[in-house]
Design brief:
Blueprint: E1 2-9, E2 13-15, E3 18-20, H1 27-43, E4 48-51, E5 66-71, E6 75-80, E7 83-88, H2 90-95, H3 110-128, E8 134-137, H4 144-152, E9 157-158, E10 184-185, E11 188-192, E12 198-199, H5 216-219, H6 221-233, E13 238-244, H7 251-265, E14 271-272, H8 291-294, H9 299-302
Parallel strand pairs: 1-4, 1-13, 1-14, 4-5, 5-8, 8-9, 9-12
Antiparallel strand pairs: 2-3, 6-7, 10-11
Helix pairs in contact: 1-7, 3-4, 6-7
Amino acid sequence: MDIIIVCHTEFGFVNDKKIIFDKRAIQGVKNGVLNLDKITEKYGAKITFAVCPETADYFPKEVGQEVGLHIHPGWINCSHGRFNWFIGDAYLKDNCKQSINSSILKDFNFEEQLGMIKTGRDYLNRIFGYYPKTFVAGRWSLNNDTIKALVETGFTHDCSATAHSKPAHHDWSKLPRICTPYHPDEDDYQKKGDLPILITPISQFFPGGNVNIESAPFYGTKWLEACFLEYYNQGVPLFHICLHSPSMTDGYFISAMDRLLSFISKRRDINFKFVSEIKEYPAKKYKTNILPYLFAVNRKILNI
């Protein structure tokens, strides 16, 4: 089994086990990136950091991991309790045409999406010395125009797919919960085709939800471990973990990530890889197996 870790690199801090994406909190990049790098070094794991252009100057240059592009368009005010912050990217806001003020990439026309992706790609090349090949859309939101723009700008992998879900801001409902990487169709990014970009879905636990260490306060790390076993025991070839860099400034999430990687690394035939190293696997259908989850239920889950 191949294991990939994709870290959305953003400003922010943790308050009461919730990330506040405050753009003044540069420790979400500086400290979060370094802390995650230290954890993964223990297990020989690799990380693909999906970097927002506005954060690139704060990324610790001594970290020898892979860098991809993460885009949050628009400039939308958000709040939680006493905290307020903006969803969006200051660099893209100042350097790209955005005719609407939306935080959802698929709301923009093709030319505007292409402009943001190209501008972000070129800026990361200026900072890191190479063009990123991996992409993550903010709020997991993209459409056929996004895929077209990514192919045109030379991206080889997309990690935006949160399979089997369709909230207001994205649609990945056609993908089965356990979904392996695929090349999308030109007319429908959720169908298999032959475009030269690989959609690499995030692993999904039962009954649905991203394998993200930030879900641990509710589900517990045992639930994420159960998901790994569900995949591992039936030979799913890829396990995709996602997270946001500010979570790695908090002791609770740091410990939870350490426990999850320790659990995974004890299994045989585990290969940690960068996203750019992933290729399409032979087609196979996988089944839901709830048995591992029966030993991971906690009180919060039972109170749903």
